[in-house]
Automatic annotation (TrEMBL):
Function: Catalyzes the NADPH-dependent rearrangement and reduction of 1-deoxy-D-xylulose-5-phosphate (DXP) to 2-C-methyl-D-erythritol 4-phosphate (MEP).
Catalytic activity, EC: 1.1.1.267
Protein name: 1-deoxy-D-xylulose 5-phosphate reductoisomerase
Gene: Dxr
Keywords in alphabetical order: Isomerase, Isoprene biosynthesis, Magnesium, Manganese, Metal-binding, NADP, Oxidoreductase
Annotated ranges, domain 1-deoxy-D-xylulose 5-phosphate reductoisomerase C-terminal: 142-225
GO molecular function, one term: manganese ion binding
GO biological process, alphabetically ordered: isopentenyl diphosphate biosynthetic process, methylerythritol 4-phosphate pathway involved in terpenoid biosynthetic process
SUPFAM superfamilies linked to this entry: 1-deoxy-D-xylulose-5-phosphate reductoisomerase, C-terminal domain, Glyceraldehyde-3-phosphate dehydrogenase-like, C-terminal domain, NAD(P)-binding Rossmann-fold domains
Gene3D superfamilies noted in UniProt: 1.10.1740.10, NAD(P)-binding Rossmann-like Domain
Pathways involved: Isoprenoid biosynthesis; isopentenyl diphosphate biosynthesis via DXP pathway; isopentenyl diphosphate from 1-deoxy-D-xylulose 5-phosphate: step 1/6
Cofactor: Mg(2+); Mn(2+)
Domain DXP reductoisomerase C-terminal: 257-373
Length: 380
């Protein structure tokens, strides 16, 4: 029996993770759950899974949660450090990090420092601070949940690190891939939130539409798999059936395929190195008929080149890109900026930032804070 804590349990990945754990209840016990403000939903999850600790980052709502659960043996943690606290207090063997954004970094660091397995969906932690997080982790201590990285990790089980020629990360292209470039300035948040193949939280869905998600993912891949920029390719594959591929030095290309369903990579991260049965929709290739591929359009979707810049140059670019993007996505959702301004404002902030080649954690956090202030100047 393994103890699992799920950070961000009320979100899209968090709910899928609980679905997986519910089906594997003889192998996993939930000892920690967390959310930001959905306290009633978190309370229902706590009542079902009976963890020893839960965390709500919103201090004011935490009072209501405590009152609701009074009489139960569940400790409620709240406040700024609650993610880190739940990692350490919940006695988890595995921490699923399914929070969105930079807030996940401290929990990622705490998890690996405590020697626990980190099942990582929160790609932003590696985008910001892969140079800090990765050296702290042992081999296979960080297990990817992101579908593309899980696919690459699975494909890599058939070869060795020094046999990798390149990886090919697939991208759905998002809802606007075939839109004429001159129409993108006018697309709305409602349109952007209609992802063609995946049902996900709002932030990542907008990132998919700008292709910033692929930018974040190539940075994530660099850190997870120790790759150079010229070993990371992106191909647009609108059906999201091939989740990514690895080309080895003998020319063999190993792909991981399946219907788009995050329960598959979540479960693999929890059960690795074993596999467990999962009642997922079977892959019916004759029904799908066509798997198609296109070169990404870097002019129409400039976010991708920012990702390659961060992979090549490293340093504080990842943290700056991530922070500026988080603010820009929120501003787009609030209809304060246009869709096309997300990438252009992020680029502007990166170009103005004070680059540090090998930043320590404090310098990374300072770059994050600076970028959040700087991009606000573009919003007024
Ligand atoms: N969704 C997907 O299929 C995929 C997601 N990912 C990555 O996984 C992560 C989660 O994505 P997703 O599940 O879609 O996101 P959601 O928005 O659906 O869920 C986010 C979760 O994080 C919590 N949260 C939000 N803000 C804070 C905060 N400031 N402090 C503490 N907790 C917070 C939310 O709590 P509350 O509900 O109370 O707001 C919620 O539980 C992201 O990094 C994303 O890029 C990667 C691959 C696929
Ligand atoms: C499910 C998952 O891993 C997402 O990151 C997904 O890949 C987003 O789709 P895009 O390929 O459109 O970015
Ligand atoms: Mn992904």
């Amino acid at each position: 029996m393994k103890n699992v804590a799920i950070l961000g349990s009320t979100g899209s990945i968090g709910k899928n993770a609980l679905h997986v754990v519910r089906n594997l209840k003889d192998s996993f016990r939930v000892t920690g759950l967390s959310s930001h403000s959905q306290w009633e939903f978190l309370a229902r999850q706590a009542e079902e899974f009976n963890p020893s600790h839960i965390a709500l980052s919103d201090l004011q709502l935490a009072g209501k949660l405590k009152q609701h659960l009074s009489g139960k043996q569940i400790e409620v943690i709240s406040g700024n450090n609650c993610l880190k606290e739940i990692v350490l207090k919940s006695e988890a063997d595995i921490v699923v990090s399914a929070v969105v954004g930079a807030i996940g970094l401290s929990a990622a660091i705490a998890t690996v420092q405590a020697g626990k397995i980190l099942a990582l969906a929160n790609k932003e932690a590696l985008v910001m601070a892969g140079n800090i997080v990765i050296p702290l982790a042992k081999k296979n201590q960080i297990l990817p949940v992101d579908s593309e990285h899980s696919a690459i990790f699975q494909a890599l089980q058939s070869g060795r690190q020094n046999e990798i020629r390149r990886i090919i990360i697939t991208a759905s292209g998002g809802p606007f891939y075939d839109f004429p470039a001159d129409t993108l300035a006018d697309v709305t948040p409602a349109q952007a939130l209609k992802h063609p193949t995946w049902r996900m939280g709002q932030k990542i869905t907008i990132d998919s539409a700008t292709l910033m998600n692929k930018a974040l993912e190539i940075i994530e891949a660099k850190w997870l798999f120790n790759l150079e920029a010229d070993q990371i390719d992106v191909v647009v594959h609108p059906q999201s059936i091939i989740h990514s591929m690895v080309e080895f030095c003998d020319g063999s290309v190993i792909a991981q395929m399946g219907m788009p369903d995050m329960k598959v990579p979540i479960q693999y991260a929890l059960t690795f190195p074993e596999r467990a049965c999962l009642n997922a929709e079977p892959l019916d290739l004759p029904r799908i008929e066509n798997l198609t591929f296109k070169k990404p359009d870097r002019e129409k979707f400039p976010a991708l080149k920012l990702g390659y810049l961060a992979v090549r140059e490293g340093g504080t670019i990842g943290a700056t890109l991530n922070a500026a993007n988080e603010v820009a996505v929120q501003a787009f959702l609030e209809k304060k900026i246009r869709f096309t301004e997300i990438a252009s404002f992020v680029e502007k902030v990166i170009n103005h930032h004070h680059f540090i080649k090998d930043p320590c954690l404090e310098e990374i956090l300072a770059a994050d804070a600076w970028a959040r202030q700087e991009i606000k100047k573009c919003l007024t």
